[in-house]
Design a protein that fits this description.
By secondary structure, the chain is mainly alpha-helical. The chain is built from 15 helices and eight strands. The protein has a three-stranded antiparallel β-sheet with strand order 1-2-3, with helices on one face. Strands 4-5-8 form a three-stranded antiparallel β-sheet, with no helix packed on it.
Length: 399
């Protein structure tokens, strides 16, 4: 080992030979500084031991910030996992959240305690628990990647937990389950409003959302070949994705989960509505001034004049404008129709297993809350009906 006194009595340099590089066969020199000769030597020996035992090159780790590690990981993750672009986009957003805290921090200095503080702070800021869980999952994948690259021995995410937000009375009172779906009267008012003020295909789109339980992305991806008019069935196999919300830069990707691929049966009235709409669409196509070479023939059920599909954002905008013409005060997005459909099926006494299969196994917790709430309400209604019908007989016992 080589030693050099850099500052007399204050700083020493020690240089030792590390293990041979498995590719070049050459030994890598490990240099460390210390206040004393003994301290510098100790640091060199520790660095060599880390390389021999764990393969960790401290010189690389020293320069590796979380921001750089995360960028390396998301690049490899996108290339090797085969995940959808939507998933990559979500992971990238979660990295941005983490970067606000530790972008320039050396990865070796990120402790479990430091990382736990990030999760705690996100909770205190009011982030949804699902969002924080996503951030936690992404962080775990990034640090696992660091361990695989021999940059770290342990992950700071191990032992960290996503805090559970304690519900207050105000939280419970301000977020009743009834806010998650339209009551029968509200659904009727909204659809009547669509019929009176809606644009072309608004009525068909919102009826289909309400009476099928499909997601808006699945609706936009629907093709005529997915609809079987003979059996009254619709096959759901895909959803639409566009990173920049550009209709010409869309992708058709597999739906959210394996359980989301499904075939659903719909009512005769919905099928009749779609048949009539299909005829209007064909007529509109014949009258269109769009040149054949400019027309995008994707066979979409809900297509623009140029043939390109609508995106979920368009459904949101249309719904917002139509809601303004109603007396409905709920903050509603197209997703409310999935929950409304669950309540409709529950009132029709469809069992929970069938409901879950029909809507594609999405958000079981919310589904169960709606199912339980509507079931309890039905019990109360049943009791009131008995009271009204047989009240005179019931009163005999107390007279």
């Amino acid at each position: 080992m080589y030693f050099e006194e850099l500052v007399k009595g204050k700083k020493w340099l020690a240089v030792g030979d590390g293990p041979r590089d498995p590719v070049t066969g050459k030994r890598k020199q490990i240099a460390r500084r210390g206040k004393t000769k003994k301290e510098a030597e100790k640091r060199v020996l520790e660095a060599i031991a880390a390389l021999v035992e764990d393969g960790i090159d401290e010189s690389i780790v020293k320069k590796m910030t979380f921001e750089k590690l995360a960028a390396d990981w998301i690049r490899d993750y996108a290339l090797t996992t085969g995940n959808k672009k939507g998933t990559i986009r979500i992971r990238t957003k979660e990295i941005k959240i983490l970067n606000r805290y530790i972008a320039k921090t050396n990865i070796a200095k990120i402790t479990t305690r430091k990382y736990q503080k990030i999760l705690n702070d996100l909770t205190e800021q009011g982030y949804a628990r699902n969002t924080i869980s996503g951030v936690h999952t992404t962080a775990g994948l990034i640090f696992k990647y660091a361990i695989q690259r021999k940059l770290l021995k342990h992950s700071p995410t191990e032992g960290a937990v996503v805090p559970k937000k304690r519900l207050t009375v105000e939280d419970i009172e301000n977020n009743p389950i009834e806010e998650k779906y339209f009551e029968k009267e509200e659904l009727e008012e909204f659809l009547l409003t669509v019929k009176e003020f809606g644009l072309d295909m608004d009525l068909e789109r919102f009826y289909l959302l309400a009476f099928s339980g499909m997601r808006s992305g699945e609706l936009c991806a629907l093709k005529w070949t997915d609809i079987n008019f003979e059996t009254n069935e619709i096959r759901i196999t895909k959803t639409i994705y566009s990173e920049n919300n550009n209709m010409k830069e869309y992708e058709l990707v597999p739906p959210k989960t394996a359980g989301s691929v499904r075939t659903i049966e719909v009512e005769d009235q919905i099928m009749d509505m779609l048949k009539e709409y299909q005829m209007r669409q064909k007529k509109r196509r014949l009258q269109s001034r769009i040149k054949p070479e400019e027309y995008h023939d994707g066979n979409f059920v809900f297509a623009r004049e140029n043939g390109y599909p609508f995106l979920p954002k368009n459904i949101i905008v249309r719904m917002e404008r139509l809601l303004e013409k109603t007396s409905i005060k709920k903050h509603a997005t197209p997703h409310i129709f999935r929950h409304t459909h669950i309540s409709m099926l529950t009132e029709a006494r469809v069992d929970i297993t069938t409901i879950m299969k029909r809507v594609g196994h999405d958000d079981m917790k919310t589904t169960m809350r709606i199912y339980t709430h509507v079931t309890e309400k039905m019990k109360e209604d049943a009791s009131q009906k008995v009271q009204k019908t047989f009240g005179n007989i019931l009163n005999i016992g107390i007279s």
